[in-house]
Amino acid sequence: MAKSEAAAVKEPGSKGKLKLIIVIVVALLLAIGLSVGATWYFMHSAQSKPAPAPAEASTTKQPAIYESMAPAFVANFKDANGRQRYMQVSITMMARNQGDLEALKVHMPVIRNNLVMLFSGQTYETLATPVGQELLRQKATASVQEVAQKEVGKVVVEQLLFTNYVLQ
């Protein structure tokens, strides 16, 4: 008799646990199915989009091309005391496209004129410091880029490099 009462007591509890296990298994299967479906959906949509490979190819830089501007620039200017000073600068242009650089060379008289005017308008006190030299190099680069944009239609020269710099 005791065994039948114990079986009767376990019977209703085991049905409740069985339902709980079935609900958990169904929920897990549903979660797994949803994750597989979502993964397939997003992977499939990512494959259908065009690859951005051409955009990445255009961002790779071409090798630098260096073109020296000969002869060296010589400019005179006055210092704060009114004394006559001279500056000699050798410049090298750095570009990435030889064809564009050749197109810019046609306008070299305009570029040289603008640079001589820029150099002549400086003060000795400014040019004697490394910061002043760097500022002058940046201004000269901007001047050449402005001429390139106006005449060639795009910025050809990436930067100007001072390869020789003498103040007297």
Task: Give a summary of the structure in a few sentences.
The chain is of the alpha+beta class. The protein has six helices and three strands, in the order H-H-E-E-H-H-H-H-E.
Notes on the protein architecture:
- The chain is α+β, with helices and mostly antiparallel strands and 168 residues long.
- The protein folds into two domains: 56 residues; 103 residues, 2-Layer Sandwich (Tetrahydropterin Synthase, Chain A).
- 60% of the residues lie in helices and 22% in strands.
- It is built from six helices and three strands.
- Strands 1-2-3 form a three-stranded antiparallel beta sheet.
- Helix 4 packs antiparallel against helix 6.
- The chain is elongated, with a radius of gyration of 38 Å.
Features:
168 residues, alpha+beta, Tetrahydropterin Synthase, Chain A, three-stranded antiparallel sheet, 60% helix, 22% strand, elongated
Strand fraction equals: 15-25%
Round the Cα radius of gyration to an integer and report it.
38 Å
What is the succession of H and E elements?
HHEEHHHHE
Helical/strand content category = alpha+beta
Mean pLDDT reading: 84
Residue runs with pLDDT of under 50 for 5 or more positions: none
The level-1 CATH class of the largest domain: Alpha Beta
Can you count the beta strands? 3
What separation lies between the terminal Cα atoms?
121 Å
| Structural domain tally | 2
Main sheet record: 3 strands, antiparallel
Which CATH-level-2 architecture of the largest domain? 2-Layer Sandwich
Shape: elongated
Q: What is the number of helices?
A: 6
Binned, the helix content reads: 55-70%
